Amino acid sequence: MGLFILRRLGVMLLTALCLTFIVFWLTNLYPNLEKLAKTQGNFRMSDEAVASYLGDRGYLQPTYDKFGEWLGVMPGWVTEKEDGKVFGRCFPEGTPEAERPTRCGILQGDWGFSTVFKDDVGATVLTRLALTGKLMLWVLILMVPTALLVGVLAGMREGSKLDRSLSTFSIATTATPEYVSGVIFIAVLASSKFGISPWLSEIGLLESKTLFLGSATSAMDSANFWNFFLPVLTISLYGMGYIARMTRASMTEVMTAQYIRTARLKGVKFSDIVLKHALRNALIAPFTVIMLQIPWLLNGVVIVETLFNYKGFGWLLVQAASNNDIELLLAVSVVSVVVVLVTQLISDIGYVYLNPRIRIS
Question: What is the tens place of the pLDDT at every residue in 199-233?
């Protein structure tokens, strides 16, 4: 097992490095750099002024040199102007020569400076990632148990009315985009003029204007489920159907296995067959699917966070891309890549432990 983990870690690091380099190369294409120069300077800048701006800040170096500086394995660029002013990637203008660091990259914990938020990229990403982490926690608490329950109940008796009803529900939730279900929930549950809130208020069952909040902005400070309810429900319904369908298919396959038939012929109670024999084997495949939902939750909440005005990691990704904030966009991409690879590693390890038929030499 130890050798297996080490091999997977090696592959994971190599994959992360390759994907990060591709993102770095794409974000450092000249049109993006030209837009950055004009955004930070003046949109009427001449081509010479743009080239001067980019050259002074190390953007016109070869891609491999810039990538090495960004990682922190190569010394950062240093620019000395004709008037004697000296500044570089690792130090601002006016820094004494003895206090100028040579390297400042990811390996040194320096993620760069955000041109949009005017703040350190690392602190900005960490703050927004924590906000999305709280949202994801509530989503997983609601989505995973509900999806597994729906899938197990549907798969216990294939072809029954319960199976057809739950399968239809699962397909409907997966086929409904978040921006559709989110708008419906806001109109039905969070509107003071439409839906059930005015009716509840009229009969005296509701003291506030709406049953739920149509905006999750307050959840950024107070992380209670009431503030999170609508975005959590929107995301959970979309991901729930896929997990439920996979669980149902796995449960159906297990229930038709020979050892299950033998147990039923011997008169073992149906509930004991499901709980003691079928359930563990049926949850092996859904475990992988559940782990793969985490990267989707991290990057797939863009629409929901925008719809409910929740400024988390997805919202940060939109801001970085729309404002051409190269350093911030790189940091967001690196975090996304790492989350995908780590969850994949956990999924592989968990699959080995859950499936006793797999042996690693």
Answer: 777 777 777 777 777 777 777 777 667 778 888 89
**CA dist., res. 299 & res. 296, Å (int):** 5
H/E stretch holding 316: helix 313-322
| Model pLDDT, residue 361 | 45
Give the total residue count for the chain: 361
Residue 78's DSSP bridge partners are 88
Report yes or no: 261 and 315 within 8 Å, Cβ to Cβ.
no
Q: In Å, how far from its chain's centre is CA 337?
A: 10
Q: DSSP 3-state assignment of 113?
A: strand
The CA distance from 153 to 136, in Å, is: 25
pTM above 0.85, yes or no: no
pLDDT value of residue 357: 63
Which of 33, 29, 57 lies closest to 45 in space, CA to CA? 33
Listed residue (153, 136, 355, 128) closest to 252, CA to CA: 153
Cα separation values, 128 from 221, 232, 236, 247, 347, Å: 12, 17, 20, 32, 25
- pLDDT tens figures, 109-156: 889 889 888 889 999 999 999 988 888 888 989 999 999 889 888 888
Distance CA 160, CA 172 (A): 18
CA atoms within 13 A on the CB side of 8: 15
CA–CA gap between residue 184 and residue 187 (Å, rounded): 5
Mean pLDDT, rounded, for 327-337: 90
d(CA 164, CA 155): 10
Write the pLDDT tens digit of every residue in 7-47.
Answer: 777 888 888 889 899 989 998 999 889 888 888 877 788 88
d(CA 26, CA 198): 51
DSSP 117-175: TSSBHHHHHHHHHHHHHHHHHHHHHHHHHHHHHHHHHHHHSTTSHHHHHHHHHHHHHHH
Q: Which helix (H) or strand (E) holds 299?
A: helix 284-300
